[in-house]
Design goal:
Blueprint lengths: L13 E2 L6 E2 L12 H52 L1 H24 L9 H10 L1
Antiparallel strand pairs: 1-2
C-alpha cells in the first residue's frame, strides 16, 4: 500500500472512502475518511443514495395497483371479445370469408391484367433500342 498523504514516513492503512487518498492510522477520521470534510461528503452521498432507494420503492409500490388495474381491464376486454365471438360466430366467419374472397378476387384480377408488372423505364427502352 502507499504512504500516508499527510505523513510520508508512515504506511497508509486505508484509502479515503470519499476522495481515495491514502491515509495512515493516525489520520483516519470516522473509520474510513481522511478528514471531517470527506466524512460529511460521505454522509451526504449515503443520504442521497438512501433517498434514491426509498423513491424507487415508493414508485414500485405506486405502480403495482396501476398494473393490476391494467391487467383486469385487458382481461375484461378479452372476455368481452370472446363472448361476442362465441355468440356471433356464424356471422363473423361469413364476413371474414367474404373479405378473404374479395381480396383473393382482386389479386387474381390484378395478376390477369398485369398490374404487377413494373412499367418500362426510359433507360430500359433506350437500351433496347440500341441493341436492335
Amino acid at each position: 500500500m502507499a504512504n500516508c498523504l499527510n505523513h510520508p514516513d508512515r504506511e497508509a492503512v486505508i484509502h479515503c472512502a470519499a476522495c481515495g487518498k491514502p491515509v495512515c492510522s493516525g489520520c483516519v477520521v470516522q473509520a474510513s475518511y481522511c478528514s471531517d470534510i470527506c466524512a460529511e461528503r460521505g454522509k451526504a452521498a449515503a443520504a442521497r443514495a438512501c433517498g434514491v432507494i426509498d423513491e424507487r420503492r415508493r414508485t414500485r409500490k405506486s405502480a403495482l395497483p396501476k398494473r393490476i388495474a391494467l391487467v383486469i381491464i385487458l382481461l375484461a376486454i378479452a372476455g368481452t371479445l370472446y363472448w361476442y365471438y362465441s355468440n356471433n360466430k356464424k356471422q363473423i366467419d361469413r364476413k371474414a370469408r367474404s373479405i378473404v374472397n374479395s381480396v383473393d378476387r382482386k389479386n387474381r384480377d390484378a395478376i390477369r391484367s398485369n398490374q404487377y408488372r413494373a412499367p418500362d423505364s426510359k433507360f430500359k427502352r433506350d437500351r433496347e433500342n440500341l441493341v436492335r
